[in-house]
Amino acid sequence: MDTQTIEILGRNRLVNELLVAELEVAIPLRDRGIDLIAYVDLAAKTSKFAAVPIQMKAASTRAFSIDTKYAKISNLVIAYVWGLHAPEHAQSFALTYSEAVDIAKAMKWTATASWTKGSYTTSAPSKKLCELLAPFKMSPDAWRKKISRVSQVAL
């Protein structure tokens, strides 16, 4: 699969996950570091509007990356959508920027030349990385909790 196909599949899967979680989704017209916006409809479970920007990282198999350019986007959630080569293998993880940086620190990536230049990427996640990501695996309930926590609005 080419990268555009992977991006489309990843975005569609992520939109589906958010809708199943009873969240609404907006897609920005321009890519400025935000791929989707998850929000709570006022008629839903809250009387206060709550929206969270999401940067998606889609991979046909598995990949993890963190880039310092995302530090400037307030309340950003980075969604890693893996296994897009086969729907039965697909899974997603969602981390705030600071949670992703904490993982980078735990993996000692922040001490690398790559990080000094502003980013770190691996297309072969280790067992340790997978273990660190496990608490961030998404389900409908996990998505609602993540959006609630990041937006600071009870859902």
Architecture overview:
It is a single chain. The protein is an alpha+beta fold and 155 residues long. It has one domain: 3-Layer(aba) Sandwich (Trna Endonuclease, Chain: A, domain 1), CATH 3.40.1350.10. Helix content is 33%, strand content 24%. It has five helices and seven strands, in the order H-E-E-E-E-E-E-H-H-E-H-H. It has helices spanning 3-20, 97-106, 113-116, 127-133, 140-151, and strands at residues 24-26, 36-40, 50-58, 64-67, 77-82, 91-96, 119-122. Strands 1-2-3-5-6 form a five-stranded mixed β-sheet. Strands 4-7 form a two-stranded antiparallel sheet. Strand 5 and strand 6 (91-96) form a beta hairpin. It is globular.
Question: What layout of secondary structure does this protein have?
Answer:
Elements: H1 3-20, E1 24-26, E2 36-40, E3 50-58, E4 64-67, E5 77-82, E6 91-96, H2 97-106, H3 113-116, E7 119-122, H4 127-133, H5 140-151
Parallel strand pairs: 3-5
Antiparallel strand pairs: 1-2, 2-3, 4-7, 5-6
> Could you state the order of secondary-structure elements as H and E?
HEEEEEEHHEHH
Number of E-state strands: 7
N→C terminal distance: 37 Å
- What is the third-level CATH name, the topology? Trna Endonuclease, Chain: A, domain 1
Q: Are there runs of 5+ residues with pLDDT below 50, and where?
A: none
Structural class: alpha+beta
**Radius of gyration from the alpha-carbon trace, in angstroms:** 15 Å
Rough outline = globular
Tell me about the biggest sheet?
A: 5 strands, mixed
CATH class label? Alpha Beta
Name of the CATH architecture = 3-Layer(aba) Sandwich
- How many domain modules? 1
Fraction of residues in H or I helices = 25-40%
Strand content: 15-25%
What average pLDDT do the residues reach?
91
